[in-house]
Amino acid sequence: MRTARVILIYLAAALAAAVCGVLFGAARIPLSEFIQDGALNPIVELRIVRTASAAVVGASLAVSGLVFQAVLRNSLAEPFLLGVSGGAGLGAAGAIILGFSAWGFMSVPLFALLGAVTANLLVFAAVRRRTAEELLLGGVMIGTLASSALMVLITFSHSHDMAGVIWWMLGSVQNVDPARQLAPAAILLAAATVFLLIRAGDIDLLTFGPEYAWNHGVNARVMTVVLLALASLLAAVTVSMAGIIGFCGLVVPHIVRRLHGGSHRKILIPAALAGAVFLMLADILGRVVSPVRELPVGMVTAAVGCPVFLWLLNRSRAGS
Amino acid sequence: MRRLFNLLLLFAVLCLAACSDERKTAPGGVVSLSPALTELICHLGREDRLVARSTACDWPESVKSLPAAGDFAEPELERILAMKPALVVSNEFVNPKDADALRQAGIAVELHPCDNFADYREWVALMGKLLDCPSEAESELARSADRIAEFEAELKTSEKKPLRALYVIWDSPLLTAGADSLPDAVGRLAGLENIVKTEKGYPSISLEFVLKEDPDVIVWFAHGKDWKSNPSWSGIRAIHEGHVLIPRDDSALLRPGPRIFDGIADLKSDLETMFTDKESAGASAP
Known about the structure:
The complex is a heterodimer. By secondary structure, chain A is mainly alpha-helical. Chain A contains 13 helices and two strands. Chain A has a two-stranded antiparallel ribbon with strand order 1-2. Chain B folds into two domains: about 1-140, 3-Layer(aba) Sandwich (Rossmann fold); about 160-280, 3-Layer(aba) Sandwich (Rossmann fold). Chain B is built from eleven helices and nine strands. In chain B, strands 5, 6, 7, 8 and 9 form a five-stranded mixed sheet that branches. Chain B has a four-stranded parallel sheet with strand order 2-1-3-4, with helices on both faces. In chain B, helix 5 runs antiparallel to helix 6 (about 135-155).
């Protein structure tokens, strides 16, 4: 199938998911009540923001996961490998438990972003040779260290704080500020996508290994660091917006690559759109299944993503 | 021979510890790991029996000078054992293993729920026996019954429709008080109707549900959190209209203790002021 047609299909799916995201939720709102007294119904407004947030977060995670899997040449790679989730979790928990959340709505996301970026920088600073494998190991170590520190913080926290930290770690797109969080994240996603499209050839070469890429004129070490840093930044921004949402960055790139091959120029935009669709649908499911309590979107992605991933794993083993 | 003697001694100690559940007057010091129970002990005039409190016990002011011996779920065992109290009281959240360890050391342990008015009245009666103050307990039982009856009578005679309320325990995630919770019972006596009817306890609810239910007033228990800073809340009518009530002392309303009835009266009066002021402002507007 031609790339343009594939993109059109994914775009149509994303639009359909976005429309469903605005139409369905805890409350039933007839179309006639979408506008009230000349203004948008607040429930519809809320759904528009959260659907757009789910789309941007899902697309960012899928793009990030795609880059990680390509550069690390590991289909199990995911966006949080370089300590992003541990660092962000520690930052957010620190803000909640140490009382910085009282500074205002943006304090927790900013601390989460700070934690994620710091953990990421620590990985790059701690690993001397910065090959993909060593960065991966460094990420696991720093992530483990951050997670342990997070557990220590949780041990000393009060029950409300603990609920806040746990809920944040499960992920939710309910409380996203459109101006201060959604817009910058969308701009970063767009800029990253353009850069990755330009460098798609280099990513393709890196999937064959750093020596192969080097022989074809790519500075493999520099490009590896740049790509992993960009992918981690995308993940860090999503974490600061919506908490730790697993599986989207792991499963979606995997499926898109299986369906449409390994050319990153061809699969980058489909992967981003598929990630957006996946998270929008997961968010709708979380809202509709339990209208009063609402399931955290991270829980839904895990519940859906886990069986899909196991199925893929078994299929690939059977194939090999 | 000595080993046999030691074993017999240990057996005797264990038997004594097993018998300690029997409710009888505790003669020695008391450790209270629940803020509501600490308040009750002081209210019954037995503050002199308290030897330690939980980290959350902060009323009356004088109890702050007592040493803290953990929180209501996690007592500091070594510290409590060193104090050699006769009785430890708390709610049912204490780890059963910790409670067993205290019992084995010969300390009486009373762990019961303390979540609503009925629990409170049971604790009053029990404390009357445990702390040897039956007449004080009797008068507190009578006072609490009278206050509840007063609030109920005012509700029956009131012609006002109950205000639909959202109780915010925490803002992110949005934790609220469900159908069988203490804030639900307290709010009902103050003339409020909880918008959360199907969920019990303290559930985390969706913002969309709040927008759908459109509460008249938000009672803000999220101490230290700013309700104005979250942009997602801007669509809620009660926020637009400034109907967010921060209780004068949220601990008086969230603890089933002796101050709860004054807390309800304050809440009621603050609600009346909030809505009367708005009505009169609306009436005087051109």
